[in-house]
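Morning F.,

Quick status update on the modeling queue. The single chain you submitted on Monday has been processed. Sequence for confirmation:
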Amino acid sequence: MPRRERRAQLLSSALEVFVAQGYHSAAMDDIADRAGVSKPVLYQHFPGKLDLYLALLDASCDTIIDNCRDALASTSDNKQRVAATIDAFYEYVAHDTGAFRLVFESDLTNEPAVREHVDRVTTECAAMIADVIRDDTGLPDAASRLLAVSLVGMAQVSARFWLSDAGGIDRDDAAALVAGLAWRGIRGYPKADEH
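Structure tokens below.
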């Protein structure tokens, strides 16, 4: 199997194991078995369990950041931007791979490299949202960042809560409900040209 395809296979198998067992309980033996390879083959691609985990975490973080970027770029209507961005978090959390667990529920956040990756999601998503808030409202950078981090937190925490306790609310309705709440709050900061 070509190196790139083997690496993708190993990452896919590792994701299943890490999502099911968490970092601490997952073993390289389990990952190699799941991938149908020997441990030496696994170690040819990833020198250790942390390296493998960080590669997965990096890809997972990139996915949610890219989804957020795409949501913000999908329209210039801010109400629709809020809905698209909230929906991006719900879609990510609802994805059947469970990759969100690596980003939002990692059992290894005391490891500095993992914490850095996990924090990157909030930092980069909030920075993109803050740019829109600052450009539209004229609010100072610090205020725009605080509002943006609050919106990211609302999206991420509510999506995870919905997944664990949906209470019969389907994903689209849940995302729309939270987007409505977010929009009612953020629209209170009028566009700079409406002052």
